[in-house]
Specification:
Layout (H helix, E strand, L loop, with lengths): L2 E4 L2 E4 L6 E5 L2 E2 L4 H4 L6 H17 L4 E4 L9 H8 L5 E7 L13 H13 L11 E5 L6 H17 L3 E4 L6 H11 L7 E3 L8 H9 L3 E4 L10 H13 L6 E3 L6 E2 L4 H7 L7 H12 L4 H17 L5
Parallel strand pairs: 3-5, 4-12, 5-6, 6-7, 7-8, 8-9, 9-10, 10-11
Antiparallel strand pairs: 1-2
Helix pairs in contact: 2-3, 4-5
Length: 314
């Protein structure tokens, strides 16, 4: 049995169950609340997050992958407070999003990879929580600085075997550029999730990503800026008809709290951007559209397990 790191320790991948592969719990401005704690209602936010996890579990969700990086305010102590009272498994990440720390400009790829490996092997910050996945981002396109980060993540992956999950910009087809760099670094592309692929209806682009071996993240359900839920569902239905359900994972890219926007404003603008949208709305519609239960289980249970099953350096 393969074991992977969660916030509360290692578990067998067989116990992951229904998994949302690209979510967040808290997205916070780095350093703000340690300097101005009065801006943060700690107890209320922890209570809200725990209550949210309980609702997720009641809806049949067993695990979430929290892809909050250091530049998005990653805080292992805070997440541990949630996890201690959560019925849902939480997997934390290492890596960086679109705003890597300035110090990375003075570090080479191997030195940055060392930081990611430290999170995976020794624990995040001073905690005993080990990262279980590497998050990398490209938007809009791969430039020199971004290439260095992608190579860092690829090298950390090769050294540890921990899977990679990415943030991409479908308008520039940056997922393909990411694959090029990963491939150049010797990465097995079947161990990579190309994220935010659900922001396009371009079947040709999506099939090219999967034909190279990667899984695609149809992971922004509830965010209606790029596409509507109906368009996102249409795309998944077409891909399932083409036989690609074995290379798709689902998620929302949502959170319990994001300090860039007031909670009440977000609910008004994007009322379906919550952790239960897939369970309550998307899966029933996929069934109506002819997607089989086997295919749904592949996208929500089997594929996440397969991604985390592929452990070990190479």
């Amino acid at each position: 049995m393969t074991q992977i790191a969660t916030v509360l320790g290692r578990i067998d991948t067989a116990n992951l169950g229904f998994t949302l592969m690209h979510e967040h719990i808290f997205i916070l401005s780095p350093g703000v609340y340690s300097n101005w704690p009065h801006l943060w209602n700690h107890d209320a936010e922890i209570e809200n997050a725990i209550s949210t996890m309980e609702k997720m579990k009641a809806a049949g969700i067993d695990t979430i992958v929290d892809l909050t990086t250091v530049d998005l305010g990653r805080d292992p102590i805070l997440i541990n407070e949630v996890a201690q009272n959560s019925p849902v498994n939480i997997i934390m990440c290492t890596g960086v999003w679109r705003q890597p720390p300035n110090i990375f400009q003075s570090l080479d790829s191997d030195s940055i990879a060392d930081l990611f490996v430290k999170d995976i092997e020794d624990g995040i910050a001073t905690s005993q929580i080990h990262a279980g996945i590497i998050k990398l981002a490209t938007e809009p396109t791969v430039d020199e600085e971004n290439e260095k980060i992608l190579r860092s993540g690829a090298r950390a992956h090769r050294r540890t075997g921990v899977p990679i999950s990415t943030h991409t910009d479908v308008r520039t087809e940056s997922g393909l550029a990411q694959q090029n760099i990963f491939e150049d670094e010797g990465v097995d592309l079947s161990r990579v999730v190309i994220g935010h692929s659900g922001d396009t209806t371009d079947i040709d682009y999506l099939t090219r990503l999967m034909e190279r071996g990667s899984t695609i993240g149809m992971d922004r359900f509830g965010i209606d800026r790029a596409l509507t839920t109906e368009e996102r569902i249409d795309t998944i239905v077409k891909l399932c008809e083409l036989g690609f359900s074995k290379q798709i994972v689902l998620s929302h890219d949502t959170n319990c709290q994001m300090d860039a926007r007031k909670r009440e404003d977000r609910k008004e603008i994007m009322p379906n951007w919550h952790y239960l949208h897939i369970s309550q709305d998307v899966l029933p519609e996929l069934r109506v559209r002819g997607v089989s239960e086997e295919q749904i289980n592949q996208m929500t249970i089997t594929n996440p397990k397969r991604i985390f099953d592929q452990q070990g350096s190479y």
